[in-house]
From TrEMBL:
Protein localization: Cytoplasm
Gene name for this UniProt entry: trpS
Role noted for this protein: Catalyzes the attachment of tryptophan to tRNA(Trp).
Motif 'KMSKS' region, chain ranges: 195-199
Gene3D superfamilies: HUPs, Tyrosyl-Transfer RNA Synthetase
Protein name per UniProt: Tryptophan--tRNA ligase
Residues bound to ATP: 9-11, 18-19, 147-149, 186, 195-199
Enzyme class: ligase
Family classification: Belongs to the class-I aminoacyl-tRNA synthetase family.
Binding site for L-tryptophan: 135
Main subcellular localisation: cytoplasm
Entry EC no(s): 6.1.1.2
Entry keyword annotation includes Magnesium: no
Length: 332
């Protein structure tokens, strides 16, 4: 089977519906056709300030949510980035072939460093994309399923792989980003032109997988729409409604056209009420299963350790090849 790699940051308390639709659902579908490797990127999380105890807990919680949502740790390799030392080791080598200007052009770095202020932004944040490239390249992944916001990082990964190969000889597989157009971007419910994100300014626009059903329903019912009342998919004129229709369509397995027909002559209120039910029904069982898995952290840690060992077998072989190609003296 061809290899696939993707990663996600451990998030405070819960994943949001954008992670679920943009990443998780795709991963779940792809894991049968690919030899899938999924990584919880705790080293990436360190690029912004973290509370140590919370980071540890969130890493477990994130793993539990992925398993609860259908990533099978027996079929796929689901592991924690810091458990496989080859990741930061390869990142170092990639840092040495990345241009300073090239890394400075990463839009996510520009956004995040602007938010942190020039003293708050760290060298770690700057080096983030090269660690991500290392994640992908260690596994000879051909496919990298991500949301639209990660496209530029995957492009950089391709450039670095090509550059390394031409300087040191064929070593890396050049990966392709897999981005599903319709679901590549889920927007904030209160600000439907901004990407839904863990770091959103207001809580009420973000639907968390682990929210209580009543909280989820309330957030969806109070999502921003526009003055009209016609339920129609129009990203420019009706970004709020378009976002709700996207979420609805994916979770209910109906096309946008079917939904538009279903809500002809009915208002936004009905759409939101029904969508709230669909979301609650989707996340209810995932939430319950997550809590169950978290009841036995030792077992969860054992599964992650086993998967990390499997990942390390692949990653260490790639790293050894890289060290050899660039001329590092082997330790005998
Ligand atoms: P992260 O943790 O921010 O997000 C995980 C995945 O969720 C997608 N996503 C969204 N998709 C649609 N709509 C949204 N509103 C939305 N918000 C997030 C992201 O695109 C991502 O696919 N740098 C990565 C993690 C990473 C990685 C990797 C990914 C590290 N190494 C190697 C792929 C391969 C990140 O911060 O994702």
């Amino acid at each position: 089977k061809p290899r696939l790699f993707s990663g996600m940051q451990p998030s405070a308390n819960s994943l949001q519906i954008g992670n679920y639709i943009g990443a998780l659902l795709q991963w779940k579908d792809l894991q049968t056709d690919y030899d899938a490797v999924f990584c919880i990127v705790d080293l990436h999380a360190l690029t912004v300030p973290q509370d140590p105890a919370l980071l540890r807990e969130n890493t477990r919680r994130t793993a539990a949510q992925y398993i609860a949502a259908g990533i099978d740790p027996a079929e796929s390799t689901l592991f924690v980035q810091s458990h496989v030392a080859a990741h930061p080791e390869l990142a170092w080598v990639l840092n040495t072939i990345t241009g300073f200007g090239e890394a400075s052009r990463m839009t996510q770095f520009k956004d995040k460093s602007a938010r942190q202020g020039s003293d708050g932004a760290t060298v770690g944040l700057f080096a983030y994309p090269m660690l991500m490239a290392a994640d992908i390249l260690l596994y000879d992944a051909v496919a990298v399923p991500v949301g639209d916001d990660q496209r530029q990082h995957v492009e950089l990964t391709r450039d670095l792989a090509g550059r390394f190969n031409s300087r040191f000889g064929e070593t890396f597989v050049v990966p392709e980003a897999v981005i599903l157009k319709e679901t590549a971007r889920i927007y904030d419910l209160q600000e439907p032109t901004a990407k839904m994100s863990k770091s959103a300014s207001s809580e009420s626009g973000v639907v968390w997988m682990m929210d209580e059903p009543s909280v989820t329903a309330k957030k969806i019912r109070s999502a921003v729409t526009d003055d009209g009342r016609e339920v129609r998919f129009d990203r420019g004129e009706k970004p709020g409604v378009a976002n709700l229709l996207t979420i609805y369509s994916v979770l209910a397995g109906k096309t946008i056209a079917e939904l538009e027909a279903e809500y002809t002559g009915r208002g936004y209120g009905d759409l939101k009420k029904d969508l709230a039910e669909v979301v609650v029904e989707t996340f209810g069982p995932i939430r319950a299963r997550t809590l169950e898995l978290l009841d036995d952290p030792a077992e969860l840690d054992r599964v992650l350790a086993g998967n990390a060992a499997r990942a390390a077998t692949i990653a260490d072989a790639t790293l050894a090849k890289v060290y050899d190609r660039v001329g590092l003296l082997p330790r005998v």
